[in-house]
Amino acid sequence: IPVDPFDLVIFGGTGDLARRKILPGLFRRFCAGQMPREARIIGAARTELDASGYRDVVAEAIGEFIGHHDYTKDQLTDFLSHLDYVPIDALGETGWKELQELMAGSPHIEAYYFSVGPRLFGDLAERLQRWGMADSECRIVVEKPFGRDLATARELNQTLATYFNEDQIYRIDHYLGKETVQNLMAVRFGNMLFEPLWNAQYVDHIQITVAETVGVGGRAEYYDKAGAMRDMVQNHLMQLLCLIAMEPPARFDPDAVRDEKLKVIRALDPVKPHHLVRGQYGAEPGNEEEMPDYRTAVDNPRSRTESFVALKTHISNWRWASTPFYLRTGKRMAARSSEITVVFKDTPHSIFAEDAGRHRNVLSIQLQPNEGITLGVTIKEPGPGGMRLIDVPLDMTFAEALGEEGAEQVDAYERLIMDVIRGNQTLFMRGDEVEAAWAWTDPIISGWEARNDVPKPYDSGSEGPTDATELMRRDSREWRKVS
Ligand code: NAD
């Protein structure tokens, strides 16, 4: 079903994110018939280009990031005809009159995507208003990072609030746009089976891992000032934690869901120093040239920035009081894997012989590299070998049951952009959520700074520092293997 006609202005429309994610995503929605004929996409960036030059840039990006067999030439030509471009300076006056003229009198939904560095967010907002484009109907989309601590996030929220209402501001966390994240909510709140067991009485612990194989890549300058806590934990991991731990909202609507998420963050215990592990990757043994250590990659021989964090925390409420939550994220790890794992407790008593084997139910929600939900259940090993118990995964992804159409892979960005046009904020972070998340992470970071903490080294291609393994082992538990 097509969304309503829209004009989407992409500030930073020539940048890496726009070329890799936003424009290919819009093109896929166009091919799927979701973009109406009247829709316009207007690139606005510093680069000097005209509309035809911009179409070339976008055509090249689509060629690079979408397989050629996935679309026809006609589809591409048709899509490109929706594109326009304005060279603009977020910090100056160039281009604003032209943009205003393009937008004037348009009856469409207006959305402005801030795909530029965060230091430009305030300037863009102010100029949109000054040029009469910030009316109460339009929407703005802001990218991460949203601040670097509570003070800067608050300041940014206040700046945006000067020009826009909260219901116009769409703060992106693309983890929330993943199919499986929504499937997690369907599984939790659409079944009688799980919710009664979803608490400290039945759940032994929950672990959330976001492991990457890549290093800092081209983001060295930004990353060395941020680190894994700011870049990954404060946003992505905490969002996943909220969705797995929140109370059932009364309705599946934006504020009902976000109210419940906020309560989780506010109930989080401060993290004790001995429940925290920071790491920094070293070179890959035997491959130092291609996979150099972190400090070489960021060209800062004394850097104390972490590329890995593992921590244990608790949520102080009735549901979760005694259930530990373990969070872990790192770069240059053994494999690319994002997973939430709910490990249920042992059965209270085993009626089988000791050597029959004993397994815990494990619900595993994978977000990367493949999306899917599986539940490990214990059954009898088939065959004549007597009563031996094995663990088999029940696949809840339903790709087979739904057929090809049901299993259509929609990238997180595509879904989120369409949600912006539909005016649905459920999968976007509210300002108070972001601030609460910073309020929890700030003391962790300032604690490290006060102690002059040196991150523990770990080899590229490994499971992270041994201290992270130890954090679990002390509690007689184990991380799920990344590789
Ligand atoms: P980029 O450096 O590749 O692109 C920046 C864009 O902003 C360019 O189009 C440039 O022309 C434009 N720009 C810069 N200064 C400008 C000015 N004064 N006026 C108008 N336009 C200006 O950056 P990117 O990687 O595309 O990232 C954009 C935003 O998205 C950043 O906030 C970044 O943190 C965020 N982000 C990026 C990624 C990613 O994968 N690239 C992922 C998550 C979040």
UniProtKB/TrEMBL annotation:
<dbReference type="InterPro" id="IPR036291">
    <property type="entry name" value="NAD(P)-bd_dom_sf"/>
</dbReference>
<feature type="domain" description="Glucose-6-phosphate dehydrogenase C-terminal">
    <location>
        <begin position="185"/>
        <end position="480"/>
    </location>
</feature>
<dbReference type="GO" id="GO:0004345">
    <property type="term" value="F:glucose-6-phosphate dehydrogenase activity"/>
</dbReference>
<comment type="pathway">
    <text>Carbohydrate degradation; pentose phosphate pathway; D-ribulose 5-phosphate from D-glucose 6-phosphate (oxidative stage): step 1/3.</text>
</comment>
<keyword id="KW-0521">NADP</keyword>
<protein>
    <recommendedName>
        <fullName>Glucose-6-phosphate 1-dehydrogenase</fullName>
        <ecNumber>1.1.1.49</ecNumber>
    </recommendedName>
</protein>
<dbReference type="Pfam" id="PF00479">
    <property type="entry name" value="G6PD_N"/>
</dbReference>
<feature type="binding site">
    <location>
        <position position="46"/>
    </location>
    <ligand>
        <name>NADP(+)</name>
    </ligand>
</feature>
<feature type="binding site">
    <location>
        <position position="231"/>
    </location>
    <ligand>
        <name>substrate</name>
    </ligand>
</feature>
<dbReference type="InterPro" id="IPR022674">
    <property type="entry name" value="G6P_DH_NAD-bd"/>
</dbReference>
<feature type="domain" description="Glucose-6-phosphate dehydrogenase NAD-binding">
    <location>
        <begin position="9"/>
        <end position="183"/>
    </location>
</feature>
<feature type="binding site">
    <location>
        <position position="144"/>
    </location>
    <ligand>
        <name>NADP(+)</name>
    </ligand>
</feature>
<comment type="similarity">
    <text>Belongs to the glucose-6-phosphate dehydrogenase family.</text>
</comment>
<keyword id="KW-0560">Oxidoreductase</keyword>
<feature type="binding site">
    <location>
        <position position="174"/>
    </location>
    <ligand>
        <name>substrate</name>
    </ligand>
</feature>
<dbReference type="InterPro" id="IPR001282">
    <property type="entry name" value="G6P_DH"/>
</dbReference>
<feature type="binding site">
    <location>
        <begin position="12"/>
        <end position="19"/>
    </location>
    <ligand>
        <name>NADP(+)</name>
    </ligand>
</feature>
<feature type="region of interest" description="Disordered">
    <location>
        <begin position="451"/>
        <end position="483"/>
    </location>
</feature>
<feature type="binding site">
    <location>
        <position position="212"/>
    </location>
    <ligand>
        <name>substrate</name>
    </ligand>
</feature>
<comment type="function">
    <text>Catalyzes the oxidation of glucose 6-phosphate to 6-phosphogluconolactone.</text>
</comment>
<keyword id="KW-0313">Glucose metabolism</keyword>
<keyword id="KW-0119">Carbohydrate metabolism</keyword>
<feature type="compositionally biased region" description="Basic and acidic residues">
    <location>
        <begin position="470"/>
        <end position="483"/>
    </location>
</feature>
<dbReference type="InterPro" id="IPR019796">
    <property type="entry name" value="G6P_DH_AS"/>
</dbReference>
<dbReference type="Pfam" id="PF02781">
    <property type="entry name" value="G6PD_C"/>
</dbReference>
<feature type="binding site">
    <location>
        <position position="178"/>
    </location>
    <ligand>
        <name>substrate</name>
    </ligand>
</feature>
<feature type="active site" description="Proton acceptor">
    <location>
        <position position="236"/>
    </location>
</feature>
<feature type="binding site">
    <location>
        <position position="331"/>
    </location>
    <ligand>
        <name>substrate</name>
    </ligand>
</feature>
<dbReference type="InterPro" id="IPR022675">
    <property type="entry name" value="G6P_DH_C"/>
</dbReference>
